[in-house]
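Pipeline run #58 for the internal structure catalog. This entry was flagged by the ingest filter as a single-chain record with no existing model, so it goes straight to prediction. Upstream metadata was stripped on purpose; only the residue string is passed forward. Reviewer on rotation: M.T. Logging verbosity set to normal.
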Amino acid sequence: MALRIFETDPNAKPRATFSDDTVGRFHGGKQENGIPVALDRWRVTTGDPDVAAAVAQLMGGSPVETDSTSENFIEVLTEQEKVKVVLSGPDAISSDLKLWNGSALIHHCDGVEFLSPDEDKGKPCRCPELMEDRKNAAKSKRGPSPSIAVTFRLAEDYDLGLFRLQTGSWKLAEVLHEVENALDRVGGEALAELSLELVEFTTKKGRDVSYRKPVIRVLKSWNDAIAEPTA
């Protein structure tokens, strides 16, 4: 369920966080010399050479072993900014708000109530009501940021296994309730498009800004999609 940050949906509750039973991760960026770098194509990491090879065949790129200490030590810098995926339903999306101090989680809520630790669970978190105020608090390290996880299968290789996208995108958080409503309307597995969409604008001070945001577009029922005749 979407974060409780929308005045139009005050009773929304977050879904429980799912276990990590995925075969790979999708990323919209990477670390270079300890510095985060945004990408304009999806990067996929996995610990399974067969999964890496299958992703490269579907989305372009070549599997490369990395020096990461993570269990996902093979990466594919794909050639695609868009990919068709299959979502099981609204339960494929998990979201909450978190503030970290190093490796310590010091604030964990849904925008209205604390989700942890147990002694604080259910108590008011006192986060600002408006999205812009929450962004400003997070930017100054005084408030939590979105923590959104999406699990999905690749539409072109359904049996390859579950993949996961973990993002802190405020832009996705703003519309997450719309995505979940669309999945509710489908009422089962849904075909969707997962993309890194280019955003460009000029600030009031005349500075040009561009970045990529993760976007989820629910297209149709997966059952309807696979029933359609192929050309």
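catalog note: Residues 4-19 have pLDDT under 50 and may be disordered.
catalog note: The CA atoms of residues 97 and 146 lie 5 Å apart.
status: ready for reviewer M.T.
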